[in-house]
């Protein structure tokens, strides 16, 4: 529950601190004093959007911080899933900078708004007049049924199965679309693939063939040059080898005279051997060179085919053509195997759909089981709240699967005898909506481990004995939940275990909203003013004192 609230630099609030009671907290004050402003600040903790317009002082950042005691509430799982530190005291903070940038923290860990909403939705619930509009929507009515049914586990399982089915169905639909497109391209892709496959391309053939063709086209000159090179090296009349033989002979002679010439002789001998080998190889290469026009034509045809394919597929080498061939082979193969792949994808989608339907039916059964108990409980509470002829009927229809199930829930309401129940948005007045909403919140309170519930003028349109009963219901709820109620009715204000007064302070240069906790005598005076106006009569004061004594007596019992 909320143990401490700090609001700094928000709207008309310079700085405000609130330490609410564990049970029923009453907040009163004149219209415009700042009660709704305080709720707006709390809304920021729940993940509402904000901008720089909320800054009291535009040169300073706004800070909203709530400290919640969460011991005994089963919410550790959410902290684990969001990778947040869990402790018995949870601090939630929202900051809005002067530039309008918003930051949120849970236990000093930065979080995004989605995570903030997920955490704080388990800590606090605010009922405002806007909820009366929400109550008319089928989605909100379905949430009410789910909360009462406590079917969270079933709903999570259904959503898991639903998302799994949607993924499988999307895969199947995409495969069908791809299959249709690929079948249209199949003939062309298959032609291209067969053309490349028929070519039987080898990764390194282009370079070797280009080199071989270059030799064939210049065979005459190559043979002539090789012959000249050979004759320079080893000619019978005059050659390098003959001269080198003379050098070796002379060096051999002098090396016999002195071994200091041995190295020169050995080098000359090695060079002679190397030149003889070189001459032999040149001669061999000369014999290999041949003018084969047939072979040249064959190579030209092969290279022309490769060049044409490269131009056609816009690649630079044979390796690129092989990549294209592989890609085309995959496309062709996929089309040839589409029927099997489609059948498998359809089977998986059908199986996922069957599992989703099982989960949907289980969830639907859990919802249907609580419709009559909800009708009965709310009907009894409405009678206690002065609506003896009111009736609530909950209509359930099943249809196609949605993220929330296959059920459409519709609340049909009639406040008067003999009037057929109709959809809420068409029949309920403000006071009737307030009583109906309180009845709903009352029956749901025991179904949720929600620490704090805030009622913002839920008493709109009611008075007298009905207001007393509403106050008693809030007091009952406060035994298991912390309740914060903003009210204009003395009957409800008198039920609180703590009473806070919101007022405007005009003592400085700029008006600010403040809040203070009232003492018993101050409560008597405030409730008396709520009864009899700004100058309450002695009887109003006596009545106020009596209301508080009755509350104390009821609590003692």
TrEMBL record:
Keyword terms of this UniProt record: ATP-binding, Coiled coil, DNA damage, DNA repair, Nucleotide-binding
Superkingdom in the source lineage: Bacteria
Keyword hit for Coiled coil: yes
Residue ranges occupied by any RecF/RecN/SMC N-terminal domain in the UniProt entry: 2-505
GO cellular component, as recorded: bacterial nucleoid
Function: May be involved in recombinational repair of damaged DNA.
InterPro entries: DNA_recomb/repair_RecN, P-loop_NTPase, RecF/RecN/SMC_N
Protein name per its UniProtKB record: DNA repair protein RecN
Coiled-coil intervals, chain numbering: 165-219, 254-281, 328-362
Sample GO molecular function, one term: ATP binding
Family: Belongs to the RecN family.
Membrane-traversing stretches: none
Organism: Fibrisoma limi BUZ 3
Residues annotated as signal peptide: none
NCBIfam families, alphabetized: recN
One record GO biological process: SOS response
PANTHER family according to UniProt: DNA REPAIR PROTEIN RECN (PTHR11059:SF0)
């Amino acid at each position: 529950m909320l143990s401490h609230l700090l609001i700094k630099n928000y709207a008309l609030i310079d700085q405000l601190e609130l330490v609410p009671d564990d049970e029923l907290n009453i907040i009163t004050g004149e219209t415009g004093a700042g009660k709704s402003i305080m709720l707006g600040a709390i809304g920021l903790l729940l993940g509402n959007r904000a901008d720089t317009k909320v800054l009291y002082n535009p040169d300073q950042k706004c800070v909203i911080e709530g400290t919640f005691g969460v011991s005994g509430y089963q919410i550790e799982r959410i902290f684990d899933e969001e990778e947040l530190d869990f402790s018995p005291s949870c601090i939630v903070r929202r900051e809005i900078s002067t530039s309008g940038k918003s930051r949120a923290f849970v236990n000093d860990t930065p979080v995004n708004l989605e995570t903030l909403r997920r955490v704080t939705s388990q800590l606090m619930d605010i009922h405002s007049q806007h909820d009366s509009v929400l109550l008319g929507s089928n989605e909100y009515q379905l949430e009410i049924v789910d909360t009462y049914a406590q079917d969270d586990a079933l709903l999570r399982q259904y959503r898991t199965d639903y998302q799994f089915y949607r993924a499988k169905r999307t895969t199947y639909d995409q495969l069908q679309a791809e299959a249709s497109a690929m079948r249209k391209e199949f003939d062309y892709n298959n032609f291209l693939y067969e053309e490349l496959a028929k070519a039987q391309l080898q990764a390194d053939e282009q370079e070797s063939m280009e080199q071989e063709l270059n030799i064939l086209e210049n065979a005459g000159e190559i043979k002539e040059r090789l012959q000249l090179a050979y004759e320079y090296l080893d000619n019978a009349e005059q050659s390098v080898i003959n001269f080198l033989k003379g050098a070796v002979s002379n060096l051999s002679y002098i090396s016999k005279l002195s071994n200091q010439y041995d190295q020169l002789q050995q080098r000359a001998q090695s060079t002679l051997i190397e030149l003889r080998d070189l001459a032999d190889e040149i001669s061999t290469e000369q014999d290999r060179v041949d003018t084969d026009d047939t072979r040249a034509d064959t190579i030209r045809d092969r290279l022309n085919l490769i060049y044409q394919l490269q131009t056609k597929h816009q690649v630079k080498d044979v390796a690129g053509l092989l990549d294209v061939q592989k890609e085309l082979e995959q496309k062709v193969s996929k089309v040839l195997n589409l029927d099997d792949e489609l059948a498998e994808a359809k089977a998986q989608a059908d199986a996922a759909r069957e599992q989703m339907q099982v989960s949907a039916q289980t969830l639907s059964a859990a919802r249907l089981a609580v419709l009559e108990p909800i009708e009965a409980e709310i009907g009894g509470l409405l009678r206690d709240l002065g609506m003896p002829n009111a009736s609530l009927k909950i209509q359930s229809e099943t249809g196609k699967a949605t993220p929330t199930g296959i059920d459409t829930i519709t609340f049909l309401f009639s406040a008067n005898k003999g009037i057929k129940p109709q959809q809420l948005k068409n029949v309920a007045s403000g006071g009737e909506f307030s009583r109906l909403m309180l009845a709903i919140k009352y029956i749901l309170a025991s179904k949720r481990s929600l620490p704090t519930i805030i009622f913002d003028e839920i008493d709109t349109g009611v008075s007298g004995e009905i207001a007393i009963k509403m106050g008693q219901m809030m007091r009952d709820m406060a035994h298991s939940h912390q309740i914060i109620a903003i009210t204009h009715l003395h009957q409800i204000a008198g039920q609180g275990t703590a009473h806070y007064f919101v007022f405007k302070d005009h003592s400085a240069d700029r008006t600010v909203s403040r809040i203070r906790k009232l003492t018993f005598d101050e409560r008597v005076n405030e409730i008396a003013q709520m009864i009899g106006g700004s100058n309450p009569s002695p009887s109003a004061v006596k009545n106020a004192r009596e209301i508080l004594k009755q509350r104390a007596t009821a609590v003692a019992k």
